[in-house]
Predict the structure of Plod protein.
Amino acid sequence: MAVPGVYLVTYTNEAVSSMGFLLASAAANGWAPVVLGFGEKAWWPEGLGRKINALRLYVLQPTLHPSDIVIFADAYDVLIMNHEEEIRESFESLEKALNRSLIFNGDRACSPRMADICTDPEPPDIWQHPRTYLNSGAFVGRVSALRRLLRDPVSDIMPGGDQAFYHRQSRDDPTAIAVDTDCVLLCTVARDLASEGLRQLPNGTLVLHSGAKPGLVHFPGGGHWPRWKGGLPNSVIQDAFKTRYPKQFEVLFDRVEISVDLRGAHGHHGRLDQQRSLQIIRSGMCFLCKILQSDNAECRYVTWDNEMCQELRLCLPLLILLAGLLLWKRRCWSCWILLPRRSALKPSDRHSA
């Protein structure tokens, strides 16, 4: 019997730097990912019906055998940790144990909350809750199982996006989908590693307290949101990627730049170096968070006395002085307009005045 093929597939409609996490980690483990959706009009979450339809067309290809295995992963926040053979073995073991041929990564929270799905109240101890709810950011399945699930096309625009669609499929046919609640193959990390029950070995391998070493790790929400420390941005996925794939990190992410492409791929590129880029980004965040009082999640890292506001602190006295001068000049200008200009009075008027 022929060994089934294993194919890594993702979806993105545009090129962004965060694709480097998936693509570089995949390449380091010998994968050649298939990228679907490039150039399509899609958006999160309602516009992700296109994502489902793109995968449907892919798995319906006659070149794929029903026993082949397809890995579908989000393009911006998933790390591939193992080679094809290791992931195949983990999947086949889990497939046998769960008696399911389509397995999703598990999440502690059920989302999106809608009238017909995810209606149970969220437990107060959500971070102690097991990963029992499916998350559509990463899943692995036989082509045969995916063909059954995706037998019909869907609307390109759908409330709740692709995750709502897969929740309903699981609800309507509980035998179709299983969730990897123990992170044997797939694991979600939505906070720091320690809070999620993981540790990272010196070689970059992620290990749970149970000893499981998942081959695909998904970093949704707080797992990929920027965190500022010492005036520098990073994230949980970035730190994990740096430890596991240091050479790739140096090429892809060990810099901060602001650049402008004015005329396409072969046109003029304006670029600032890392220090100036960071100064502009920090100043902008300080102004947004401390002056405009934004409720952006990153504002928790911004205080007047830390590195995030160091540039604005130096400039603030000058800005206040300039604002004062402008206000004074405006008031003086208004007074000058309102007062009669004596040079314009007639001699007789001057005498009578």
